[in-house]
Design brief:
Helix content: 25-40%
Number of domains: 1
CATH topology: Rossmann fold
Distance between the termini: 33 Å
Number of strands: 8
Radius of gyration: 16 Å
Number of helices: 8
Structural class: alpha/beta
CATH architecture: 3-Layer(aba) Sandwich
Length: 239
């Protein structure tokens, strides 16, 4: 599910942005960046604006610079949210692009990565993607998860998490408010078998890690801090 905040600050999409290439993996067009022969991969799952968002691809390139193969699939099959289209119906879009299907598609990508010799996979999801990642974290498909300013996550989903998980949230978030994320963190803390980390970033809004404005110094600094936290989590567990 998505809220109005999910549609704020839409990026200007670009099919050619980033240092990587686009190939098909697991049946999906995918932005790939980083060493192609790496045995360590990071799956980035976008918000509703999809895999051509420049800030998302910039982040993928940053993670790749640490030695990971980074994959950013087009989970919407060329149909991201397009607010410039007056005929776009948000509710119809939500129904067409559910997170259960997103999880199934992500698993197909993971299978494809494994077939190429990848031995460890981390996954990070933003907003819509965060709801997909929590589903992946309930299985052994990934070895670490990072959930950034997610959409709605249930207590049942958190109770079933098996994978080390970090949750990075915004202070100003109507759908995943800080108190809700802290509550989920308390549930995770009670699971001694699962390492977890919850952090709330002050003064920023839902989506800030990939929808920040380069002119907003606070948002840029906060996004970079969140990116660093995400990368450190993967460096700890994806090896």
């Amino acid at each position: 599910m998505t809220t109005s905040q999910c549609f704020d600050n839409p990026p200007t999409l670009s099919s050619t942005c980033g240092a990587g290439i686009v190939q098909e993996i697991g049946g999906l067009k995918t932005y790939l960046t980083g060493p192609q022969d790496s045995k360590l991969a990071i799956l980035l799952i976008s918000d509703v604006f999809g895999y051509e968002a420049p800030n998302l691809r910039k982040l993928a390139d940053k993670v790749a610079a640490a030695g990971f193969l980074v994959v950013v699939p087009d989970f919407f099959n060329g149909d991201p949210v397009d607010l410039s289209n007056p005929r776009m119906d948000r509710e119809s879009w939500r129904k067409a692009h559910g997170t259960d299907k997103g999880c199934d598609d992500a698993k197909a990508v993971i299978v494809a990565l494994r077939s190429k010799g990848v031995s460890a996979i981390g996954a990070a999801g933003f907003c819509w993607g965060g709801m997909v990642v929590v589903k992946l974290a309930r299985s052994d498909d990934i070895q670490a998860a990072v959930i950034l300013h997610p959409g709605h996550i249930t207590e049942d989903e958190i109770n079933e998490v098996k994978t080390p998980v970090a949750i990075l949230g915004a202070e100003i978030d109507s759908y995943s408010p800080p108190e809700q994320l802290k509550h989920l963190g308390e549930i995770l803390s009670a699971k001694s078998e699962v390492d977890s980390f919850v952090k709330i970033f002050p003064g920023v809004s839902h989506g800030w890690t990939v929808k920040y404005s380069v002119d907003d110094e606070l948002a840029v600094k906060s996004a970079e801090e969140a990116h660093c936290d995400m990368l450190n989590w993967f460096m700890k567990y994806i090896k």
